[in-house]
Amino acid sequence: MSKVFKKTSGNGTIALYLGKRDFVDNVDSVEIVEGVVKVDPSGLNNRKVYVYLACAFRYGSDDLDVIGLTFRRDIWLHRIQVYPPTGGSEAKSPMMESLLKKVGEQGHAFSFQMPPNLPCSVSLQPGLNDSGKACGVDFEIKAYIANAPDNPDEVIQKKDTCRLMIRKIQFAPANNKAGAKADLSKQFMMSDKPVHLEASLEKEVYYHGDPITVKVQINNETNKTVKKIKISVNQLTSVVLYSSDTYVKEVCAQEFGETVNAISTFEKSFQVTPLLANNKEKRGLAVDGRLKDQDTNLASTTLSQGEKEMQGIIISYKVKVTLTVSSGGLLGGLTGRDVVVELPVTLMSPKPAEVSDITVNTTDG
Hints:
mainly beta; five-stranded mixed beta sheet; 2 helices; 47% strand
C-alpha cells in the first residue's frame, strides 16, 4: 500500500499532494504524473497558483553558487495554472479520485505527460569530501503562488512555494533475449598462426546483484601461452548537453588463473558480479536516482527507441574479456600482447509486483 506524499508551503496557503513518486518509463510512453494542489484562496492576495514539472541536469552544488551562476540546466519543463481553474474537468484516475477525496473541496487536480525521450533519474556519486546535492538528472514538481506563470521580473518568495522530487525509472523488459557474442583472431610476432577468442553472454539482460555468466572459448594455434584471463565490466556514462562526452569506469574486474598452452583449446564459463557496494569510493560513478537517503544501485542501462536524441545522462555497460598472451623466455615480456573482446550487456531492476491504490497515510517531505 502506498502513502500520500505531501508538502506544504511556508505560509500554509498551498499544499502539494502526490500518490506516488516513482513513474515508470516504458520506452514508448511514460506514466502520467498526476497530483493535487490544495489552495486556501484567502492567502493569495489576488495572485494565481501554478505548478510545473521540470527535468533538469545538476552539474554543481548549490553552495558553490557565489556569483549568481546557476548550476542547473532545464532539459524539459512544463507548467500549468491550477487556480483559478482554466478549463473543463477531465476523466480522473482512481488515484486522482482518492487524492481529491482526501484533500477536500480546496483540492485542484493537475497532470503532466512527460515525453519518452527524457533521461531517467541518475546521480553521479560524489567524492568523500564533496558536499551538497549530487550532480545528475532529477525531476521536480513545484507549486507556487505568483501573478504570472513565468515572469523573470517577479520575485517569488520561498514561503509561497512547495515542491517534491520524483523519479523517472525504467525496469527490465519482460522478455529476455540471448546475450551478445563476439570473436577475434589475433596474430603475434614470431608466430604465423593466431589466437582465436570467442566470448558470449548467457542472456541480454541481468538484474542488479545477479552474477553475469560469460562463456569463453579459446583456440590457441600459436607457440605462445595464454597466461591469464581477465573479465571486467565497464560502465559507460554519456553526458549529452551542449556536446556529448562519455566517461568509462570499471565497476567489476576479476582475474582467473587458467592457462592455455600452445597449440591447444579451452572452453569454460565464468561469473562476475558488478555491485555498487564494491564501488562506494569511485567519484563520478553513475547510480540510480534516489529520494532522500534510500538505498540505490549502479545506474540502470538506459533504454530508448533511438528516434530522438536524448539529453542528460545515458548509461550503458560492456563486459570486457582480456587474454594475456606471452611466449615466455627472455622475450616474454616484450612479445606478450593482449587479446580483447567487448560485449554489450544490460543491467536493470526487475519490474516489481503491482502496488495497490493509495491509502490516506500522509507523510511530509
